Structures are given as C-alpha cells and as structure tokens.
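Posting this for the archive.
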Amino acid sequence: MPRLPKETDHQYKARVIDTKSASFCAAKWYNATIWLGSGMTTSCHHPLPHKIDIEEVKKNYKLIHNTPEKKEQRRQMQCGERPAGCEYCWKIEDIGRDSISDRVYKTVLYSDDDLQKAYDTPHTEDVNLQTLEISFDRTCNFSCSYCNPAFSSSWVKDLKQHGPYKNLISDGRNHFTHVHESSQLFGYQEYNPYIEAFWKWWENDLHKTLKELRVTGGEPMMSADMWKLFDWFKDNHGKSETRLAINSNLCPKDSLMDKMIEKSHYVKHFHVYTSNEAIGTHSEYIRDGMNWDQWIRNVHRLCSEGNLEGFHMMCTVNSLCLFTLTEFLDQMLELKAKYGKDFPTFTLNILRFPSFQSPLVLPVDIRTERMEDLQRWLDRNRESELLHQMEINQTQRLIDYLDVVKTPHREAFEQAKLKNDFKHFWHQYDQRRGKSFVKTFPKQLTDWYMTL
C-alpha cells in the first residue's frame, strides 16, 4: 500500500521519503521515458533526456533504461545529494510554503517495500521498470507551439517549408532552427535496435513487472507499433496485468478514433492521457493542429464508448493558457460530474522550456491578475468532492509559483532577452501558421505584446 489511509502528501513524504534521504525519488529506479526513434531516455519529464549507447544496448536490452547516467543519479539520491538534472523539483521545494514537488507524486506510485528495495539495491545493478513511457517515433499531426521537431513530424514540415526561426537569442538548444534529424534515426520499417530491445524486454520481463506501459509520440495512433501492442494484448488476453496507456491528442482521423475505441475492449486495464490547458481559439492557437470541437467531442466519445479504467488530463501551463485556464478547469469539473471523479484527473505541469513561453515572462501586473483569478477558482472549488487532493495541491503550487518564482530555470536568460524572443517567435508563428496573436488573445495581453 503506497499511502496510509487519510495520510497527507506531507505526512507521506516525512514517513517514506525523508527517512531514506533528502533527495530520494523512485522515478530514478522504476520510471522512465524512452524515445526509441532516437535512443534517448530520462527518468521523468523534468530532467533533460540523455543518449543510450547503441552498441551496448545490443548486448543488454535493459540498458534502454539502466544507463550509466541514471545509475550515478541513483547513487546521489541514496547519499542524499541533489542530481542537477532534477532542478525542477528542487526549485519547487525551495519556494518554501511546504511546497510538494513532483518527486513525491512519482514516488507514491510504488509500494513501501519496493521503495525500500530500490534504496537498498546497489546503484550499479539493473532494475526492472514498473512504469514506462515510450515513443516509437515522432510522427504527429500537431505542431504545438512549445513542442519542436524532435517530437513532431509536423514541426519538421514547418521548418523544411519555411526555414529556421530567426532572432531567437534565448533558445540555447536551438529547438526551432533545424529539423533534429538525430531524433528520428531510423526510417519506416528499418531495423531499429532500440525498438528490438524494447520488444525483447517486453516479452521476457516487462509484461510481468510493468504496472503501466504508456505510449507517447508524436501521436501514437499514427504508429504501427502502437497497433502491434493492441494486438499483443488481444492475442495474449489475461497474460498481463500491465495497464496500457496512450498519450493522444485525441484529434486523429475518425477511423483511427473508432479503431482505438474498439481495441480498448481487449485491454483489461486501459488508460488514456491527453493534453490541453486552454479552451476554444486559445487552445487552437497554442496547439497548432487542434480542433477544439473535435477534441471535446472525442473526449466524450472516449468516456462513454471506450473501455476506460482511467482518463488523465495533462495541462502544460504556459504564458498564453493562463487567460482561459480557469474556464478549462471548469470544463474538467463538468466532465468529472458526468463521468466520475477520475474521468478526468488533471495535472498542472509548469512549462520551463522554451523559457520565453514560460508564464514568468509576463509582466508582473498580468501575472498577478492571472494568479488572483486562479486563486478565486481554487477558493470556489477547494471543498468540491470532485477534486482530488493532488489536484488541489497542484493548483495551489501554480499559484505559489506565479507569486514567488522569478526565473523559469537556472539557465534562463534575463527578462529582456526572453521578451525579445516572445515577440519574435509569435510574430513568425503567426506568419507560418496563418494565425493572429492580437486577434486571439485579450487586450490586456496584446497591448503589452505590441510594446515589445
């Protein structure tokens, strides 16, 4: 049992995590994201990904997770040291105000016995995953503003058609200047040792040890390996208790949506994760490719027709979503009221990269007004039976973040450079995508935008 009855996040942290070390996080052992098209991995969505040795993985398929980098970070956590790549959680914890960082939510997923086993296991040993997020390739029908060609074939098309974005001085990783060929090393049906390693591990161990296998992309419904997984569950019905989850933008062709709903009935434990954080035209502007009406229609279809055990809403909190975020959260409450408290659950994940799209780029008066709007929403709904404690905590955490934190991350540029990039990016984005910043967002924001 990962949590005692009525135990709060703070009580759990004190009882289970702090008794091991001041920096312990189970994600380093039991959780991973692996991009099989590029051979990259990370322990959760906060640290930057690192390379998996292609020759070594041919010898040891478990190396797609158990890399030397992760093993060193396990050693650090066993010693109470803070791995530098986990800065997101340290920044949240250093806010004060008893802030709960994501390492608590990443750790509470696992049993107390498994956590103790991780802490006691020599850091040099390979560990079997319990939760895994994989991407087979980057094929995607969306090119969201804060995404980039490394994760979206539509972004690749944008850069090939229009060339690199220009005059972005804070984009230290050059996300918007080239097509990231290294993110898709293998062509369609070409031999890929990373995908081969996954299927070997899946057949031998993972279908027994994984609590959840989560497929992301790109858009997974556009990947042949996603349908191969669905077929595996159909052909091996009852042989695995693994939850199969899919990260989908829920705006595929209707035929693919029909197919996923039909296939879901052959999976014992099926979960869907989707992403959104604004409504209507704001959502369609931020997430290029989004059709709001189609998206909300498919949300209802999935909840009413699919064989769903869980439905999860991942909100990427950026500077532009704040103007309809509370309306979006109202929409989440309406869905919960119709389909149940867990349909959906939501998380508020604060965007840090690219840093010029962070909420912290906004001027203090706008940020404060948006923070107060969010606080009023939380005050109205704090006692709602439809909200989980985690959702309340995540909302409060965002309020505190908007109030206290001054820079998106330790490597972020000063505000003048971030504002420069804010203006240059959205101006070029409008030209390339046929959009209009000033016609989409409220006067309060566009007046400031025009001064940049």
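The mean pLDDT is 94. The longest helix spans residues 415-433.
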